[in-house]
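Can't attach files on this board, so I'm pasting raw text. These are the components:
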Amino acid sequence: MSERPLLSVRGLTKRYGAHVACLDVGFDLWPGEVLAVVGESGSGKTTLLACLSGRLPVCAGHVEFTLRDGSVVSVLDLSEAERRKLARTDWGIVRQDPRDGLRLGVSAGANVGEPLMALGARHYGQLRAAALDWLDKVEIDGDRVDDLPETFSGGMQQRLQIARNLVTRPRLVLMDEPTGGLDVSVQARLLDLLRGLVADLGLSAIVVTHDLAVARLLSHRLLVMRRGQVVEGGLTDQVLDDPQHPYTQLLVSSVLQP
Amino acid sequence: MTSAVAVRGLTKTFTLHTQGGVELPVLRGVELAVDPGECVVLADPSGAGKSTLLRSIYGNYRAQAGEILVRHGGGVVDVARAEPRRILEVRRRTLGYVSQFLRVIPRVPTLDVVTEPLRALGVPAAEAVARARAILDRLRLPERLWGLPPATFSGGEQQRVNVARGLIAGHPVLLLDEPTASLDAESRGAVVALIAEARDRGTAIVGAFHDATVRAALATRLVRLHGQARQEAAT
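---
Top answer:
Structure tokens for the assembled complex are below.
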């Protein structure tokens, strides 16, 4: 077992005026671990994700990330340029709406190839091969490589966004409601795909979702947020099957069992 | 600790906050030690907390008080206090668990469901598949089902997938919660034979079995959670 967490968060607090979006949130994420953050709308899940990635300035707190060489950087103290570099090399960010995470004006193949080019890849044949390989991994027909994402269904767009994010082999992936906008039939396929990719690549990931079934399927560990605070955390099946906090019990007992 | 599992002073109470804070005391001061090669059968009637105890040992339920010591690798882990990644590691290498119901994952074929515990241990795909085919064959699950997701299977077919998944990795500790409940006599016999082989290989087993013939075939000792002084020798 590795001795240092990949990501270490302490005392993270974000206020919008008098409104508290995140209050004193802290956790460690270990290599290969998938952490789900659940809670109802407005509980602070998405704000937490935006603060972690440095997209939103925080009011207080520390976020430490362990680099490939074992050194530790304080994410919130990085300059904009350093943060962008870290995002390119080590982080993937999958947005709820694939249209926010894709470049809609270029082909599917270019969407997958671009992140590699940003890391210095220039050989056209290799870029195209990588794009085709990743389209195949996310179950998109190679015939569509030159088509624009606009011509894809919502589920295909989301799979393309995942390929665009994972092609550079990031060490940490942040996902915000990755199945949120999709039909139920498409959700299952995407979840299965994500589960396989996360396990095969040994990724660490933080998945924000309001769907407890998604959390159960994808995550090892769970944080339950309410009004900006973590009210309960632990092994995913333990929190869902034996919830301790009144709010978690309410969440779990409110889910319809089909 | 020579036992494979030692439960000491385990207390588990459910507090139902959505039901006005009703408290359900299920386990109080439970003591249980299981050695390798033993099959300890929990002999209380329904509602006595057998499933709760099995789930607590697996780390699925949280204990209010007490220790749940599991021999893991060269050391001992207290499941009641271990952090999540430690519990997952103990499940991967040491604890096998078969519940009454298979929690199916959409779209995942039976063979993948069954090989998954082996793949998590790093067993190569070809070997994992060969072992899965062998165990599914012994459990008499028709081969035409192996490539299909178990969601649409009958209760008995799902249960055999569940047993195959729980037993395939040869974990040193098995927790079995009514693994034969929805099976016909022939399938039940196949499951019992597999469990007996595991026991005779030195696996430490804790089980809840209602069926008297299953108990007779497997139990080396009967234990009651309530009135713990009355431990009886197996017949």
